[in-house]
Design goal:
mainly alpha
Length: 138
């Protein structure tokens, strides 16, 4: 192992793509996202680099003013409602699709708009439908 060669290679890499370790701008964030998208095509070979860049992306998205409003809304959102909305998005479901688990579309709409809470019965029915532990919705 030639430590000087490793150091030189690292300096060259970070001078060209410093965003791998720390994103400092929206442009670098976009470059990091593009790099991860490219690396995923050969995940097994690139797993360590994907992990490193992903941590950099996560840090940027957690602290950047660009994401502050989004992060604030997510933090203010009820976890159960956030999970329900995510499932609705992933499975392309609407408020009409939860009659068995929650009830009519108006109740589902009230819940997804944080005007009503999921009940214990709703949570158990949703957990069963999506094969998730009930605590996912708490």
């Amino acid at each position: 192992m030639n430590l000087n060669q490793i150091k030189d290679n690292a300096h060259r890499l970070f001078s060209e793509a410093g965003f791998i370790a720390e994103i400092k701008s929206t442009e670098e964030h976009e470059q990091a996202l593009e790099l991860v998208e490219n690396l995923i095509e050969n995940y097994d070979e690139n797993e360590q680099l994907i992990d490193l860049v992903s941590r950099s992306i996560q840090e940027w998205e957690s602290t950047s003013e660009e994401f502050a409003d989004f992060n604030r809304r997510i933090n203010d959102m009820n976890n159960g409602v956030a999970v329900l909305k995510t499932l609705m998005d992933q499975y392309n479901l609407g408020v009409n699709d939860f009659e068995k688990e929650i009830g009519g579309k108006s109740l589902v709409s009230l819940i997804t708009n944080n005007k009503r809470q999921l009940t214990l019965g709703h949570i158990h029915a949703l957990a069963k439908r999506f094969n998730l532990p009930p605590k996912t919705f708490v």
